[in-house]
Amino acid sequence: LAKTTQPISMDSYEGQEVNITCSHNNIATNDYITWYQQFPSQGPRFIIQGYKTKVTNEVASLFIPADRKSSTLSLPRVSLSDTAVYYCLVDRSGGGADGLTFGKGTHLIIQP
Amino acid sequence: GAVVSQHPSRVICKSGTSVKIECRSLDFQATTMFWYRQFPKQSLMLMATSNEGSKATYEQGVEKDKFLINHASLTLSTLTVTSAHPEDSSFYICSARPQGWEETQYFGPGTRLLVL
User: Fold this and answer.
1) What backbone phi and psi angles, to 5 degrees, belong to B88?
2) Residue A88: closest C-alpha in chain B
3) Which of A18, A34, B17, B79 could form a disulfide with A49 if both were Cys (CB 3.0 to 4.6 A apart)?
4) Nearest to A41 among B4, B57, B112 (CB)
5) pLDDT tens-digit series, residues B33-91
6) pLDDT tens digits for chain A (112 residues)?
7) What residue in A sits closest to B34 (Cα-Cα)?
8) Distance separating alpha carbons of residues A111 and B19, to the nearest angstrom
9) Residue of A43, A93, A94 with shortest CB distance to B107
10) Closest by CA position to B32, among listed A95, A47, A104
């Protein structure tokens, strides 16, 4: 499975839109892109998943360009409670691990 | 929906004892579950893949005789840390793939293990 690269950290302010980009240059045809949020001492929480173009749910949007070599998680109007580590994960339909690897994640810090 | 539980949430044990951690998918069935370990300020590291009805698959460097995995049903996988030592102290997290949506995994809340 494709390895991922994200910025190590980002800062923003309450009420702003935050965009976190992840690179996955070796993504394969049957790979999906999933983003997770993790707070200290908790398991990762599913945010959003996509295959191509744009996906939106009640908490975020996910933008995936045509070549799928990157993806951008967009968090609208962030609040202090959005301070967390965000991981993008390239995962494969079919169930197995196949080199399933979490990157280092992006530590997002929201200030008042 | 898509809730995964783990038990216990925290455990403290003496060196040399064994500890069992349970992972349950509460509202879906999962043929495949994963076990991860996470050290402070680090990312999740995959330890093994647990497959219902068959042997687990371990990642390179993970001792299968030390970390015993049993996936006896479509909703339960267990990880037993045998003869635990202080260096096994970590945060253990499981995840489960819903049947029919197998490019996704949902994570449990994690289990904090402290070996004295």
Assistant:
1) -85, -5
2) B43
3) A34
4) B112
5) 999 999 999 999 999 999 888 889 999 999 999 999 999 899 999 999 999 999 999 99
6) 668 999 999 999 999 999 999 999 989 888 899 999 999 999 999 999 999 999 999 999 999 999 999 999 999 999 999 999 999 999 886 656 665 778 889 999 999 9
7) A97
8) 40
9) A43
10) A95
How many angstroms separate the CA atoms of A102 and B51, rounded?
A: 20
Contacts for B39-44: CB closer than 8 Å, 24+ residues apart = B39/B90, B39/B91, B43/A87, B43/A102, B43/A103, B43/A104, B43/A105, B44/A44, B44/A87, B44/A102, B44/B93
3-class secondary-structure state, position B86: helix
The answer to whether A101 contacts B46, with C-beta atoms less than 8 Å apart, is yes
Q: Please answer whether residues A111 and A13 qualify as being in contact, where contact means their C-beta atoms are separated by less than 8 angstroms.
A: yes
User: How buried is B72 (Cβ within 10 angstroms: 0-12 exposed, 13-18 middle, 19+ buried)?
Assistant: exposed
Strand partners of residue A8: none
Among A58, A9, A70, A62, residue whose Cα is nearest residue A35 = A62
Tokens of A84: 């967390």
Q: For residues A1 and B105, what is the distance between their CA atoms, to the nearest angstrom?
A: 15
Instruction: Pick A95's closest partner by Cβ from B6, B46, B102.
Output: B102
Position A56, amino acid: T
Residue type at B24 in one-letter notation: R
